[in-house]
Amino acid sequence: MEFPVTLHILGKEVLLHPVTESLGIFIGMRYYTFAKRKDKEKFSSVNSLLILIAATLGALLGSHIIGSLERPFDLMKAENVWMYIWLNNTIVGGLAGGLIGVELMKKIIGKKESTGDKMVYPLITAMFIGRIGCFCTGIYEETYGLPTRSMFGMDLGDHINRHPVALYEMFFLLIFFIALKYFQKNYTYRSGVLFQLFMLSYFSFRFILDFIKPKFNIILNLSTIQIVCLLVIIYYIYLLKKNNHEIIRSR
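The structure corresponding to this sequence follows.
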């Protein structure tokens, strides 16, 4: 297998990654639309639109801001700071930014109920499809791991066996999707718990995964992404512990 993987479309060579990324977003949105139709919760279409806009803007800003802060010295030395910010992004920042955007908008419109549960499976699906493209880009995008002698090591384009972290994440997302379906079938829980479990689990996974990825340490051997992960983990542990007496019961 040669990296990066490309497709030939209309006589032009195109990287697979943007194709899978776009496909992931499209399928994720269709999945979300389907889930929303089945949802019994009804609230103002205006509020729905405002929350969607807040989530989108928050995710866009968070993705690029956190992505550009992964290597702060490179950001400070960039000739065109705005272009540097635009060219750097991360799903961790996108999820965290989207969360902040939604929570701020909910406070503005006075909506206290959680709106995240129906987004969990579409998000996992979109992320899984997107990671296929990340893996197929190899070392030509910063979604590869450190060199390793383990049986899982792969040559991702530089003739060095590395941790295929995109594959690790795909495996995690697949297992987690199945585990959440089992949880949903066998437990009763308050609205919002599914999203809280998703955020806590994914950010915990990413916090650990980034120890086997090339990274720039900010403090205590932690990268910018790991610091963000840690803050989100603490926040969701607090939420789940605060309400654990009433949110999860076996059927």
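The first helix runs from residue 16 to 38.
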